[in-house]
Write a sequence for this structure.
């Protein structure tokens, strides 16, 4: 593919001509030849050319690298082949605006704004480094933008170049079918994530699409999606969000909820209720007796007894966090039996309790679902037999928070020898351990759940 434009069609490109300079041109064919990029290149919407740097090497062995002055074990890409190639391209294209981009871990971080800016140029030349990188002198002379795709080091600039070309291409008119399908994307017009998306079936393995999306009320769907997007951005990338907007949007949501007596928000099913508090039983990541992080096995006792305690004390749902698909299948089978068949054999109460159980592969997916259902992230409160540390909340304070109904709460319990550190650290609050008569402290999780629920929700 050296010195070749990728197979072009007849449409005139509205984007920049893109020249990629690399010692490994064959890496690009599969990426630029497939899917959206492949179609756009084939139709001529994108004008991308990949150049083999070895064609510009002056020696017979087509060498591109040499030793680093001053020592060190890595090789450095020589200045002359890069200079010869870039000079030829500049003279050949003579575009009004050209950017010569060096892929480098030391560059400015690549982002959507940069992709959009590059897309508005007439000509881009992207240099792929290798080994220790390129001779600094040629970089100083030619490069207009040194760009990194993240704070990590790869073996070469080819993957970085592919990522940049892909992101730039999405800004070229016609490459992505409809403008609306990109304008809602993460980072498109502002630094906020896209909202979560769902497709058919509406009920997949018992996991339902959030009801609001099925209601057909466009404005309400739009507002809800905005809230989801803001809430995930605030949680995952607090550095990006405008906290003013986050608090305004959520204050509005709470105001609407308070006024709900005067009518449901449009699009919400009749009878849909606000969730109060939830329980999660984590099977991974938890500790074993040696302190290793492990996954534990599902037990029938935990499903039944904790569902019954949850039902007794008014939990909105009981979430089983099961990382292994086989365990989730087993849970689904057990729950299916009690939910579907039990009523026929007169176990209405058991069916009632077990209908609170939900199964999730990770605690995060469970938290997201609660957030969908509540419209805000739950307060995450973890439990442990170990001392609580500085995020400790007393039982009476938490009870007061739960009584007020101001925030959804998720009480997280661990199996094995307790929750792993990463779960403990992600929590908003930690409940103190239940203490008995002495220092023997090995209650079953089922007993701990019942005692804690009695303290927080008992009469
Ligand atoms: C092994 S790296 C050189 C790393 C260099 N010695 C340093 O530590 O800054 C080789 C080449 O891979 C590319 N590369 C590696 N990591 C990158 C990143 N995060 N973003 C963009 N390009 C990268 C660059 O083209 C770089 O010249």
């Amino acid at each position: 593919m050296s010195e070749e434009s990728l197979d072009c069609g007849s449409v005139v490109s509205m984007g920049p001509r893109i020249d990629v300079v690399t010692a490994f041109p064959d890496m690009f064919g599969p990426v630029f030849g497939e899917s959206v990029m492949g179609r756009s290149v084939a139709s001529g919407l994108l004008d991308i050319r990949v150049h083999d740097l070895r064609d510009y090497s002056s020696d017979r062995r087509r060498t591109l690298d040499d030793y680093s002055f001053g020592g060190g074990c890595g090789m450095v890409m020589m200045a002359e082949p890069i200079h010869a190639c870039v000079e030829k391209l500049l003279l050949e294209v003579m575009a009004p605006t050209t950017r010569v981009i060096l892929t480098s871990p030391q560059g400015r971080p690549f982002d959507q704004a940069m992709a959009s800016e590059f897309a508005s140029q007439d000509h881009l030349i992207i240099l792929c480094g290798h080994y220790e990188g390129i001779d600094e002198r040629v970089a100083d002379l030619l490069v207009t933008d040194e760009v990194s795709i993240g704070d990590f080091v790869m073996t070469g600039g080819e993957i970085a170049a592919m990522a940049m070309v892909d992101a730039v291409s999405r800004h070229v008119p016609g490459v992505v079918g409809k403008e609306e399908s990109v304008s809602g994307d993460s980072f498109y017009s502002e630094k906020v994530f896209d909202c979560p998306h769902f497709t058919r079936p509406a009920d997949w393995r018992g996991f339902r699409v959030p009801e609001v999306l099925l209601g057909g009320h466009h404005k309400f769907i739009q507002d809800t999606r905005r809230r989801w997007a803001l809430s995930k951005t605030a949680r995952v990338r607090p550095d990006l969000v405008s906290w003013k907007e986050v608090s305004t949007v959520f204050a509005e949501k709470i105001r609407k909820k308070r006024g709900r007596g005067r009518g449901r928000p449009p699009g919400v099913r009749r009878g849909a209720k606000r969730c109060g508090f939830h329980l999660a039983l984590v099977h991974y990541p938890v500790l074993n007796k040696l302190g290793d992080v492990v996954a534990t096995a599902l037990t029938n006792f935990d499903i039944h007894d904790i569902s019954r305690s949850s039902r007794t004390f008014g939990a909105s749902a009981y979430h089983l966090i099961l990382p292994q698909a086989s365990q989730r299948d087993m849970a689904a089978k057990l729950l299916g039996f009690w939910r579907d068949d039990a009523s026929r054999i007169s176990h209405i109460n058991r069916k009632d309790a077990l209908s609170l159980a939900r199964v999730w592969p990770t605690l995060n997916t469970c938290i997201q679902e609660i957030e969908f259902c509540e419209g805000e992230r739950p307060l995450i409160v973890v439990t442990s037999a170990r001392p609580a540390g500085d995020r400790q909340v007393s039982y009476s304070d938490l009870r007061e928070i739960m009584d007020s109904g101001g925030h959804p709460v998720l009480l997280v319990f661990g199996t094995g020898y307790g929750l792993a550190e990463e779960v403990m650290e992600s929590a908003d609050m930690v409940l103190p351990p239940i203490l008995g008569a002495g220092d023997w402290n090995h209650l079953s999780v089922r007993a701990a759940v019942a005692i804690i629920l009695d303290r927080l929700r008992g009469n």
Q: What stands out?
A: The mean pLDDT is 87. The radius of gyration is 29 Å. Residues 190 and 328 are 38 Å apart (CA to CA).
